[in-house]
């Protein structure tokens, strides 16, 4: 059953005989999918809520009835209670997410520092050092998930400064160089020195570029090539992050930026939606081209 949009209500108008004389688009949806038409007259007598049946499902709606003329014309408004409750629940999650992220990030950072210290002390014990590196990588993955969740929930403030996008891209490439080497991925950087500074939240842009690089690495489990290029064209900064991975099916391309969409066995499915949110936060746009078996090219444009 398709419920009402959370922002809309279904409006019916009936006459004094209980006959339906008008139904808006949302109301027509309910008529086609529920038993509402059979219950309008009864609802108009004073119900404040009602369960509408659709097959085996029942969905609660709040009901408001108003008399608009002396001749018995009544306006009946149905509002999806579940949708409204869901909005309240999501708003509550968003309000506490920054505190949760802060409380979780501190111990994760402490654990990572301690493991790194143990790793350096295990000279000559490569098997143990490898296990430590794997543990640190998992902690870093948790930290990325926290950062993504924080952006997605709307938590955390943006701090804008004049930032050199070329420098940020070079830094992100350098930080991910070891990851690419371990995964037999050859990195190619072509960043124009003529890219001007723009007002930006450098931390969030680093997160967005990092997410795209991680996405590219995961798309090349057998190794490959990662190319990051940036240049100025038509008054905009153009950034391409391109891999030679397994590619994305054409029928899935329009869904990859949607929250919680993923075809991977692991992951939250919000990484790319967070990237889009960050880019749009900066007044930019992101698009993607991909071909199965040949790879994927994410293109970002930022205004100068």
Automatic annotation (TrEMBL):
Gene3D superfamilies: 1.10.287.130, Histidine kinase-like ATPase, C-terminal domain. This is histidine kinase. SUPFAM superfamilies: ATPase domain of HSP90 chaperone/DNA topoisomerase II/histidine kinase, Homodimeric domain of signal transducing histidine kinase. CDD domains: HisKA. Its EC number is 2.7.13.3. It catalyses: ATP + protein L-histidine = ADP + protein N-phospho-L-histidine. It is an enzyme of class 2 (transferase). GO terms for molecular function: ATP binding; phosphorelay sensor kinase activity. Pfam families: HATPase_c, HisKA. The keyword Protein biosynthesis does not apply. Residues 99-304 form the Histidine kinase domain. PROSITE patterns: HIS_KIN. The keyword Transferase applies. It comes from the Bacteria. Keywords: ATP-binding, Kinase, Nucleotide-binding, Phosphoprotein, Transferase, Two-component regulatory system.
